[in-house]
Prior knowledge:
endopeptidase fold (from Nostoc punctiforme), two-stranded antiparallel ribbon, Papain-like_cys_pep_sf, thiol protease, protease
Amino acid sequence: MTIALRISFPLRLIATVTVLLVLGGCAGSGGQQGQRPSRPPVVVDAEHRNEVVMTALALLESHYKYGGSAPINGFDCSGLVAYVFNNAAGQALPHNTAAIASLSRPIARRKLKAGDFVFFNTLNRPFSHMGIYLGDGNFINAPSSGGRVRIDSLGNPYFAKRFESARTVFDS
């Protein structure tokens, strides 16, 4: 019995660590706005803006899946953004909202253009949710509630209250 306990403790520890890593999926570590990025900021040619938006719109109604990063399995918020930018602009982004925030540069909300990022504090920590701005105050995102990729408004009371930052990776 002692041997079984010794074997089961490491297995429980591994399982616990695995669960904690998976739970970091969309929201990541939460990072602070003032932290320096661990990598240089990403710069994407503005000619890819329309393709980013069209690729994102083609994924409307895709299933939500925590930790998901592909249409066949479903998406979480940062998985959706990473997939879109990789396929539409050839730009690899991390599957982590705080990391994407650290690789992008802040812009004024009034300066948002189609393809830019919008970030929200939905879990009482910075950069815990994100979407891709579409224009006219709307963005596409993979929220857990509703279970599908959808378009929401920045004016929606839920998101308006939790809006945190507008950011971009585009060169203009």
